[in-house]
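ok so dumb question maybe but i'm new to this and my supervisor (M.) told me to 'just get the structure for Aspartyl/glutamyl-tRNA(Asn/Gln) amidotransferase subunit B' and walked off. so i did the thing. is this what she meant?? sequence i used:
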Amino acid sequence: MTESTYRIQGGTGEWEVVIGLEVHAQVTSQSKLFSGAATAFGAEPNSQVSLIDAAMPGMLPVPNAECIRQAVRTGMAINAPINRWSRFDRKNYFYADLPQGYQISQLYHPLVGEGSIEIEPEGAEPKTIGIERIHVEQDAGKLMHDQHPTRSYVDLNRSGVALMEIVSKPDMRSPAEAGAYVKKLRSILRYVGSCDGNMEQGSMRADVNVSVRKPGDPFGTRTETKNVNSIRFVMATIEIEARRQVDLIEDGGTVVQETRLFDPDGNGGKGVTRSMRSKEDAHDYRYFPDPDLLPLELDEAFLEEARASLPELPDAKRKRYEGDLGLTAYNADVLTADVETARWFEAMLAEGAAPKPASNWVTSELFGALNRLGKDIGESPVSPKQAAELNKLVADGTLSGTLAKQVFEVMLETGDDPAKIVEERGLRQTSDTGAIEAEIAKVMDANPDKVAEYRGGKDKLFGFFVGQTMRAMAGKANPAVVNELLKKALDV
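this is what came out, is it supposed to look like this??
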């Protein structure tokens, strides 16, 4: 594992940034952590609120077994020990979007212990990032300050939604490493199915802890920038906050342990972090065991079921794609980065497509078309079955690569199957040697000077003759047959 070379240049020399992330991931579940209220995104304000979520007197929370199961599966996916005995605690603080006046969380006895994930930052060696713990907690509601000129409104739809707080160790040393960590963590969560990872909808967000130090010195004082909701913003937060801390220290100031927010529009659109409040320690929240909830005790059958339900994870899938399917490291990495892409590709293989050409086609032709259309792979106008059929038509010689591109464009526009398009539009590749030889003769008759030059030693003119022949046959000639027949005709 190589050390990060990311450094911030200050007036007194180089500074190193130390980064830890607390990722809040909304658990995939039809109902909340302690109530049966729905969790659908985009519902009307306060339409998904039970009496428990609203903290009505006498209401008792009941743990949602599915939320616990999903957190356990996530812990197993990062090779972390699952604590068979864990406990919920009350984190006491007052805020207008927190009806109970406390948040039910897990401080002293979390559900999941220490784990790790492997990251591969762009242009750097792979690195292992430690994960301190995963604990389960309930989300707060949401304050809306833009609905009325003088009042703030409260939407409690998110109140009580189950979150996994995934706390990393301070092992990251650059914005690129932090970006790679969030990307990899999101990929794992999506594979497991425990969180959809939609950062733009708030179902995954990061609190970014940043400190700076001279390389080799002890850790400096950290700040925590709350609720950063995109990978790009996580990386920007680190860069901006680290620079602020270096400038502050070198000007004779002191970094204060505090909570900050990231404003991407600040500083003329370059982004800025702003102070929110001094950072509280755990004792400031007066944590104590929740008296309404018994400790969670998990039996072996529950753990075995959770373990057996895990899918093949991205690292294992990537190794299999390289080893068993013979894909390039690049193609294997691209195809396994997101679970939807991997599923689409495997559905294509299940329809009989050959792995290597299929991987090349997906990463180039399909991704290029989807990017052009502004769609993700789940919205592809072409199905895996149709894609496999198109690849088979190339493999059996029905279509050349050029013709396949034409057929694919028609498939994108019409949704028709490739075989139908080939028949209706007469796009079938020809290997008819007689027809090809006739066109070669015409091309040679029309270009006697170039024939003489080629036979005089200008081998590079061969490409000219190939191009002219293919153009004469409207791109439908089999290129291998064209090359073979041309060679024979020209080398006389």
